[in-house]
Amino acid sequence: MTEHETGQDTGRDTDRDTGAIRGGVQDTAPGTRQGDGDGDGTGDGAQVSTGKETAGAPEAAIPELVIISGMSGAGRSTAAKCLEDLGWFVVDNLPPALIPTMVELGARSQGNVARIAVVVDVRGRRFFDNLRESLADLDHRGVTRRTVFLESSEEALVRRFESVRRPHPLQGDGRIVDGITAERELLRELRGDADLVIDTSSLNVHELRAKMDAQFAGDEEPELRATVMSFGFKYGLPVDADLVVDMRFLPNPHWVPELRAFTGRNEEVAAYVFNQPGAKEFLDRYAELLRLIAAGYRREGKRYVTIAVGCTGGKHRSVAMSEKLAARLAAEGVETVVVHRDMGRE
Q1: What pLDDT, in 10s, does the model give residues 255-287?
Q2: Using an 8 Å Cβ cutoff, are 167 and 176 in contact?
Q3: How far apart, in whole angstroms, are the C-alpha atoms of residue 35 and residue 121?
Q4: Phi, psi of 196 (to 5 degrees)
């Protein structure tokens, strides 16, 4: 694999505490939400556009449960992150004895926590003997559960541990292979009972994500979440931007006295911007380009993208274009958040 576990699995998480929550539940509604006032007289703030509404559920609905386990270095974190991106509530390294409690809390959430994924590994080995009892309890309650076991060859695991220069969690004073052998023996019974075993010896991160998507995404195409951020070049580029476009090819409303005090969210300012030559054409063609990019992001397992739209001060042109671009994305089913980073800084 191209990314290694050893404390971060095949993903990018490191030094996680026991029971740390890695994922959450979407709590969104269709349309937009208005934030605090931006000081331009419009009373508008950052706008949130969401793709779909979380379906309600009976108060006592029992969540679906997936248990993720397997060999250290085989890709547990990548598998968990994939489920998180698919909307699952993910809890990392939860002691097995607490799994029924987690399911019970999900049942009390009135449908807000409909799917739970729990990562169980040897970092919780003091509690591992409780797993069988917990699973029997879940079966008695009628909880729908699946166990995913991540496997890998000894050669691949040794190579991954050596590449990040970290010890195996069970090797103690011995060698990496000693830790792998001990862990494999400890997990042997769980592997035999697993509903899905994935051998990641020759898989990279994207291939493992594709396998998880095939099992858990169903017929739905994986969602892409976009942040459209307006900004002013004079305040610096956004450090988290994936894509950056420049609106300074359009005339600046700042030089129109009756528009200077307003922002790009004002109807008159937006009309001025989009009546300029090239503005509407840019919106149409860039939206088309984003469709192509979005399809590629989904194929590569990328779920989040930040699109930065800049002008000189981040007040007029970039704001107006960001609003229109976000509306296009939301209309195509992309869960979209609008952030106006520099609006109001003058």
Answers
A1: 999 999 999 999 999 999 999 999 999 999 999
A2: yes
A3: 42
A4: -140, 120
**Cβ 208 vs Cβ 223: under 8 Å:** no
Cα distance between the two ends of the chain: 49
Q: Which residues contact 242 (CB under 8 A, 6 or more apart)?
A: 305, 306, 307
* Structure token pair of residue 241: 């931007």
Reported as a single tens digit per residue, the pLDDT across 109-148 is: 877 888 899 998 765 555 566 787 888 888 888 888 888 9
HSE, CB side, 13 Å, CA atoms: give it for residue 27: 9
Q: β-strand 48-50 against 335-340: which pairing, if any?
A: antiparallel
* Nearest by Cα to 180 from 72, 320, 275, 335: 72
Q: In Å, how far are 71, 191, 228 from 178, measured between CA atoms? A: 13, 19, 49
In terms of Cα–Cα distance, which of 244, 239, 250 is closest to 277? 250
- Whole-angstrom Cα distance, residue 178 to residue 158? 10
Q: Which of 77, 207, 85, 202 is nearest to 148 (CA)?
A: 77
Which tokens belong to 302?
């990328």
Q: Which residues of 196-222 are buried (b: 16+ CB within 10 A; e: fewer)?
A: bebebeebebbebbbbbbebbbeeeeb
Residue with tokens 């792998």, as numbered in its chain: 180
Q: Please state the pTM of the whole predicted model.
A: 0.54
Closest CA to 245 of 275, 297, 289, 276: 289
Residue 271 has, within 13 A of its CA and on its CB side, a CA count of 4
